[in-house]
Amino acid sequence: MNKQALRFLKELLATPTPSGSEEAGQKVVADYMRVYADRVECDVHGNVHGVLNPDGKYRVMLAGHCDEIGLMIQHIDEKGFLIMSVLGGMQESLLQAERIVIQGRNGLVPGVFGVKPIHLTRHDSSDKNKPPAIHELWVDIGAKSRKDAEKLVSVGDVATIDAHWIELANGRVACRGMDDRVGSFVVADTLRLLKGRKLNVAVHAVSTVQEEVGLRGSHTAAFGVDPAVGLAVDVAFATDYPDMNPKIVGESKLGDGPVLHCGPTHNKKVLEGLRKAAKTAKIRTQIQPEPRGAGTDAFAMHMTRSGVAAGLVSVACRNMHSAVETVDLDDIEKTVKLLAHYIAGLTGKETWRKS
Q1: Which residues are catalytic?
Q2: Between the N and C ends of the chain, which has fewer C-beta atoms within 10 Å?
Q3: Residue 205 bridge partners (DSSP)
Q4: Is pTM, for the whole model, over 0.90?
């Protein structure tokens, strides 16, 4: 991977971006986009738009969401312990004894989810096999009382799991928030490969917000851009590790290239164009069916205004929605190359109507 791009990816993953509080991460994205885009701007919800060839009448929108699943302080008890609620699809069973970082009033505040010692649970008559609900868990920030805690944090402050970049073997890396800082990275880095090339289309690379709580940023961004084509970039369920059943989601393996998707949300002509671009660029791809409306930015773009020809390109990811989401860097790099090759080949005269 390009050294500058890799530094950008690492910095982006190191920056907390829980849904609704993506500002710090979006600044990282905007700073990177400014090197390559003709125009960079932020909209009312916090989506960052990097635009190439802005005067082009035929618009292509790329969308990768910058937000990650997270937590929010719901209550502070009299002893200074915090009760949290979840932002997005957080697995509550994974939280006990986990470290978190809270975006407090004066900066970042570390905390830990408490857990009852195993010595005592042996004598506990409650159902030990039942995972606790989120409101039954507590976070310890070291406060002595509610008043003491409120010097550092407030009800409504957001938090993320404190889990950072880990380099594994064979170019694989693990980190929280791969879903979907990978997508935000890809749409921004695609501008790098397209910079200086003669384009027949306007390229709107959008790092979107609030995907994990309802595809909100991509919906409003697509309404504003009004693209002819919309390409979302996200992560796909890898099935090359234990307990994953390809009979449910189809096959997807780390290191086997970008994952393309088919189904009602995804325009068949867009899919065919991506396949042709991959073939000419000698990029191996995978396919995963999505028979229902999928929870990605592609669905939001697909349903915008009078309809957008939408496609979805993903990077295979193990351990999704956990603190150790694992991807292959080569898959990310090839996803950037595929999108750049596809966009560079557009004439601006393509039609997407089915009849």
Answers
A1: 211
A2: C
A3: 50, 62
A4: yes
